[in-house]
Amino acid sequence: MLPLIGLLAGIALGLVLNIPIPPVYSKYLGIAVLAALDSAIGGLRASLEMKFNDKLFFTGFFSNTLLAAFIVFLGDRLGIDLYLAAVVAFGVRLFQNLALVRRHYFQKRHWE
Amino acid sequence: MKRNWHISLVLVYLVLGLLLATSFNTQQKYQQALNAPRKEDLIRKVRQLETDRDALKKQIETDRAQIQNYEKIAAKNEGMLSAYTNELEQTRKATGLVPATGRGVIVTLADSPQYPKDGDPNNYVIHDYDLRTVVNSLWSGGAQAVSVNGQRLMSLSSIRCAGGTVLVNSTRLVSPFKIQAVGDSEKLAKALNADEKSRQLLNEIADYYGLVKKIEQRDDIVIPAYKGGLLIENAKVVEGGD
Q1: What is the spatial distance between Cα B41 and Cα B45, in angstroms, rounded to a whole number?
Q2: Domain-by-domain residue ranges, chain A?
């Protein structure tokens, strides 16, 4: 419940602040969104599996975001759409985690 | 332990929400910019033109105010201006730059048609000095404008001998000579006899050598304006002097 409130608060904050991002950096923003989404779902999964680790979660979130940003930067410099690698990696993990969360709920219900 | 992961999760979700909203906003703006570059351009142009128009309107306003101001000043100066205009008109009349008309006399002199019976044949023709004599006597009689064969005499004029002709205002004149003078015709006629040289010329000499002469008093004399150049290079105006 609390994470949902946090999400809504973040959305409200973002809409209110309306931080202007130049179109050049919109790619970085998209990757950051993906990284955050991945971490969020991953954290949800870990907490459901009772394997949640605070430090792991936090460092994972930041290292993933930074690596993704670096890949995008490198891609821009080399003229290759390297950011697609980050997008694919995060996307695959997103679906994987979502599948695990889904399975977890079903298994839980199954146990009951 | 349970509270801890909640807080970190909440934080991450907060960041996620923030990023999502920012991304959404940015994309929205980007799309708008892509979709309506022409529209924006036109709007900008219209705004620019409106600004220009307003500036021009203001310019017109200030210019009109300026004109009004000038008109006021001009109205104030009108009295002075008309005085200047009068003076200018007077000066023009005095310098012979405008035609003059009025009553006065016409003195016509021509070479003698007689064959020279004795002495110098020069005595049978009209000379530059004869013309000068008549003109000078007319001036002394109060003539206000004088012309010789249509050549208006002014401050730079001279009457000189140039071979078989007489030079007035750089124009060659030949007999007969028609001297016109505007002024009091009675006084002018009297002046022609009052001056000794003039009286001799017009009466004794003319009669003796058979020179053609005619003196008439007229009310409708028209003397043309001086049409020559007015190049006055060396004469400078004395500042503040009379």
Answers
A1: 6
A2: 22-111
Whole-structure pTM value: 0.46
The topology under which CATH files domain B97-223 is Alpha-Beta Plaits (3.30.70)
Domain positions in chain B are 2-35, 97-223
Residues facing B215 on adjacent strands: B107
Q: Is the pLDDT of residue B76 over 60?
A: yes
Instruction: State the Cα–Cα distance between residues B112 and B148, nearest whole angstrom.
Output: 19
Taking CB atoms and an 8 Å cutoff, what residues of chain B touch A59? none
Sheet holding B151-152, edge to edge: B151-152, B145-148, B177-182, B100-110, B212-223
The reply to whether residue B33 touches residue A43, judged by beta carbons under 8 angstroms, is no
Inter-chain residue contact A10 with B5, CB threshold 8 Å: no
Confidence (pLDDT) at B36: 64
**If DSSP codes are grouped into helix, strand and coil, which group holds residue B117?**
coil
Per DSSP bridges, beta strands B145-148 and B100-110 are unpaired
Q: What is the ipTM of this complex?
A: 0.76
The per-residue pLDDT for range A7-18, each reduced to its tens digit, is: 888 888 888 887
